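Project outcomes to date are best conveyed with an example. Our students and postdoctoral researchers have been running inverse folding experiments weekly, and each run begins with a structure described purely in tokens. The record below, which covers 312 residues, was selected by the lab manager from last quarter's runs and is presented without edits.
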């Protein structure tokens, strides 16, 4: 069985931005290079050092923990000089320019990957093929989708309790405001809360994608989802019935910013500019081989899924 991420340098990710820097602006923008940290861990460390709230650090996408990654972030409420002086283990910041608005989720073209695939029985002939555009494991973490479902079902009590297991500020708020579960959830950056809802939508999309084929767009379920194709509509409604949800559940009046109208996603994606950079013996696994590849994927596509489908 192949292995990836045996060491951080085996999984290198560089974000390709679509944001042009300006000479002046309210927000400073930085290339954040990190190693063995999640994006959110890095954001927390930066905010703590700068003595600002985490919501004042913007980012376009969530990057892997066991990896070496480069992504664009924005910072407000902290000066350029102070930010340049930061010294945080595992994080390096490189000034990019200014902007009139923060870097937000989705503000990128995609990501370029360099991945070393290890523990191979032989040097394989790799076919760069279309793969199902499944959401990868990092989208879900241990219970993100479960928490997302609790939110759309308006079970804020259990959603807050589960989040409190890992988020200190939510736990501390609940200690003194035991019944204010919405208030507890709002202790988190709204971008983080959206990740839970998006994780559940991604889980639903993957379930549908596993059962269908073709060069089509498959709906990401939300309150505004409309499906003309009878076969796809019947599949989606079957999954929703199994899950005990409706389209209207994605309207969250208690926290309107979490309401999601849905969208569409290509069922298949093909890695672009695919190259084999290196082949040889695997120094980490005796009598095995490794292959290092480079490719580009558009935003919201997952390299872990592309590698899984190419190598199995």
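After processing, the design step wrote out the following sequence:
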């Amino acid at each position: 069985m192949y292995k990836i991420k045996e060491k951080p340098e085996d999984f290198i990710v560089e974000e390709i931005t679509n944001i042009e820097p300006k000479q002046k602006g309210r927000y400073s923008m930085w290339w954040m290079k990190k190693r063995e940290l999640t994006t959110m861990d890095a954001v927390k460390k930066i905010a703590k050092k700068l003595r600002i709230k985490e919501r004042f650090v913007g980012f376009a996408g969530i990057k892997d923990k066991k990896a070496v990654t480069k992504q664009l972030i924005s910072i407000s409420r902290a000066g350029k000089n102070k930010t340049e002086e930061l010294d945080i283990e595992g994080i390096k910041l490189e000034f990019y320019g200014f902007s009139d608005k923060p870097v937000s989720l989705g503000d990128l073209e995609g990501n370029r990957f360099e991945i070393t695939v290890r523990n191979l029985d032989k040097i394989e002939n790799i076919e760069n093929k279309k793969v199902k555009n499944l959401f990868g494991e990092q989208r879900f973490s241990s219970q993100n989708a479960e928490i997302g479902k609790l939110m759309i079902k308006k079970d804020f009590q259990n959603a807050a309790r589960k989040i409190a297991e890992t988020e200190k500020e939510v736990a501390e708020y609940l200690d003194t405001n035991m019944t204010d579960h919405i208030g507890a959830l709002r202790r988190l950056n709204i971008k983080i809360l959206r990740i839970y809802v998006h994780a559940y939508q991604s889980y639903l999309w993957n379930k549908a994608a596993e059962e269908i084929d073709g060069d089509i767009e498959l709906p990401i379920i939300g309150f505004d989802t409309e499906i003309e194709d009878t076969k796809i509509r019947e599949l989606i409604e079957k999954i929703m019935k199994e899950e005990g949800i409706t389209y209207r559940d994605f309207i969250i009046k208690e926290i309107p910013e979490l309401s999601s109208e849905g969208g569409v996603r290509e069922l298949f994606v093909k890695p672009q500019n695919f190259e084999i950079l290196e082949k040889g013996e695997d120094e980490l696994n005796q009598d095995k081989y490794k292959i290092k590849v480079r490719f580009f994927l558009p935003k919201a596509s997952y390299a872990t899924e592309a590698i899984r489908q190419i190598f199995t």
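The first strand starts at residue 11 and ends at 16. The chain has two domains: 8-117+270-310, 137-266. The training component of this project remains on track.
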